[in-house]
Amino acid sequence: MIRVLLVDDHPVVRAGYSRLLEQADGITVVAQVASGQEGYAAFVAHQPDVTVSDVAMPGTGGLELLRKIRLRDPLARVLMCSMYDSQTLVRSALEGGAMGFVTKNAPPDNLVQAVRDSMARQPYLSEDLPPGWLREAKDDSANRVASLTLRELEIWRLLALGHTAAECAQLLNLSLKTVSNNQTQIRDKLGATTSAALVHLAQRHHIIARAVS
Known about the structure:
Blueprint: E1 2-7, H1 11-23, E2 27-33, H2 36-46, E3 50-54, H3 62-72, E4 77-82, H4 87-95, E5 100-103, H5 108-119, E6 124-125, H6 132-146, H7 150-160, H8 165-172, H9 176-190, H10 195-204
Parallel strand pairs: 1-2, 1-3, 3-4, 4-5, 5-6
Helix pairs in contact: 2-3, 4-6, 7-9, 7-10, 8-9
């Protein structure tokens, strides 16, 4: 059974999504909340298999909720929904670690399939979005990784495994200043602002092994 958390500030949307998902085989909605703040608390409390979140909400929006959830659990499955379909928004969500993006104009069965694909860790875009957007987001990430030097790759690997900068310096026989400078370069090149993001990207690109979920 796939356990789903719904986060949307519109009660009618939440009710519709809940009814749709509950009618599908093998899916149950464990909680429904109306804001990003409540969404994070519900994620911690319920540990859902998939979190479905609106992007635009008062206060903490969906992208910030995505960031906070990924910071707590780099392997969390988060699916973004929105009435907007801008490529920038979609790519930001995917690069931020979202498993997929479904517009609110998409056919209802798209949401069900997106939840199932997210559970299987298969990226998903609703059928009203150009499939090339998913490929472009992947390619952009791959290009960022390819821009790293061999030293930066090794430091990234060690950091993703949980080593501190000081430990990296000792293991690689480098000064702490050199490692710190390289760490800054790695974050800038990858567009990763948190340690959790570095871990997620390292797993995604097979720099380190994925943890068993």
